[in-house]
């Protein structure tokens, strides 16, 4: 092989090999295609109303719901007579969202698109929101910049995210204790911290505020909770598949222990409060 051929091959490989962030993004896309997020998403339906209220969405507002999942925020906004668009990069979830909207004859424009590369012009929407969505992007800085870019000047941005201290934050720490994430991965619960989100959104916003809320989830037992998450929730399902039989058993034991430590039910069932933070801002300019 000549030097020219060697240099050409090296140049081609440099342009085709995925970066660590691209590899992380592909892995995350697979995670959200695993399990069945549709069976998880309904647990977070109550977040939609809090997010839209705190963001200041009102009838007639043009709203973009980023990482819409099965569409509960978009649907809630459409019920308020808003002009709504929802995007997600998992096509199967978008299909569910479309069917849900069609069942109520709600005119929502759902698209398969990437939160880190929104296919909309600058300043396209009055309000840009995301519930338990952008927190799971690979490139947090880029996703935040896109939220700001497509919001009109004077428009509102709102994100709802699990907190690190809350129940799902602790669940995600349990996942990483058993299956460590790639070195390039940032904790998604960073988005549950107002100061971090303020920094991510940057100088393009003003009036950053936040509030914490809880949504109470109920299961037959802590064991039923653990099995439900291992069967349907992408992060726990995917992590379990990477473990051997003993590892999966230990993982399940830790999920059951997490559930029992957080259980506030007094009737023999299981109930736990899942804490999340809504951070809102106004686009400057």
UniProtKB/TrEMBL annotation:
Tell me the ranges covered by the Methyltransferase domain, including all copies. Answer: 63-155
Say which domain of life the source belongs to: Bacteria
State the Pfam families in the record.
Methyltransf_25
Please indicate if the UniProt record lists Methyltransferase as a keyword: yes
Q: Where is this region: Disordered?
A: 1-20
MF term (GO), any: methyltransferase activity
Look up the record and give one Gene Ontology term from the biological process aspect: methylation
Query: Which intervals carry biased composition (Low complexity)?
Result: 1-16
InterPro entries, per this entry?
Methyltransf_25, SAM-dependent_MTases_sf
Per its record, how is this protein called by name?
A: SAM-dependent methyltransferase
Q: Which organism is it from?
A: Nocardioides cavernae
